[in-house]
Amino acid sequence: MDARKLAQDHLQAWRDGDPEAVAATAASYADPDSGGVLTGPDLAAHAAATLDRFRDPGFEVERVIGDADAAAVRWTLRADHRAAYLGMPATGGRAEVTGTDLVTVDAAGAHVRRSYDRLALAGSLGHTARFVPAADETREFGVSARAGTARTERPGALVLTWLEVRDDAEAAEVDLLSVEIVKSLRAARGFLGVTTFDLGDRKYTLSAYDRLESVRAVHARPHQRAMRRFFKSGLCTRVHTSVWRPVSARDYARCPECATPVRTDAACGCGWTPAAVPTL
User: What's the angle, vertex CA 266, arms to CA 265 and CA 267, rounded to 5?
Assistant: First the structure.
């Protein structure tokens, strides 16, 4: 058994999109997403999940070095991103990453240890990494997004919802539904803006409207589809929805000349008047 030949055979199994062949060409295998060393059916299942996320993988070999006992293959992967990965919904884009397979051989066969940069892979799909702790003694941490408008009037109503998800795959599905809901809201006459944030297993949405009557814009078709997914198809484990009317709202801005905090509905003593900005 020549490690260089076995390394090429294993890589070809990935190119062919064949999970069983991937498992047959490696006595053991590990990569940054495998959660440890895998063999047999576990390796085939991992390969199937990977190939489901990244379709039509094209491995371009840049260099092969080594001998009959051990070999290293430097490759560049290009594949279509078709399912959730690292919390990213399927982008439909072309993923690209460079990595290395280190292959050693013993009586059991080829042992493959694959390395690649998961952050570079995410970056090729247009995602930027942010490093935050999961939690400390009093707080949970997460990620957020905003979809605003140019309207600067004060909100007359706020809608708060959150959904509790089981895992990353369900979180990605909720994200896709959320994108469609936000698109529909942006076309609504009374919509002022929306902020979404993820904390632990919950996905929150806070949206603002010019008046209470405008909240009915939430019930457009994308939102109806999401509700059916919860009530009819088992999406998510919990959902909260509520409508809030603001009791008071005050905005302050610091004068760029004298550094005095000024209410945005008044002028600074030195004559500066703050510009109005959207609430969300």
Answer: 140
CA angle 214, 217, 219 (to 5 degrees): 135
Query: Could you list the pLDDT tens digit for every one of the 280 residues in the chain?
Result: 899 999 999 999 999 999 999 999 999 999 999 999 999 999 999 999 999 999 999 999 999 999 999 999 999 999 999 988 887 888 889 999 999 999 999 999 999 999 999 999 999 999 888 788 888 889 888 888 999 899 999 999 999 999 999 998 899 889 889 989 999 998 888 999 999 999 989 999 999 999 999 998 888 889 899 999 999 999 999 999 999 999 998 899 999 999 999 998 899 999 999 998 999 8
Tell me the C-alpha distance between 211 and 186, whole Å.
Answer: 15
pTM (two decimals): 0.69
Q: At what angle do helices 221-233 and 168-186 cross, to 10 degrees?
A: 150
Question: Both tokens of residue 97?
Answer: 């990453």
DSSP 14: H
* Domains defined for the chain, CATH in brackets: 3-124 (3.10.450.50), 142-244 (3.30.70.100), 250-280 (no CATH)
Residue in the structure block whose two tokens are 């058994």: 1
Cα–Cα nearest to 31, from 112, 114, 123: 114
Q: How far apart, in whole angstroms, are the C-alpha atoms of residue 126 and residue 223?
A: 26
104: left (phi over 0), alpha (psi -120 to 50) or beta: beta
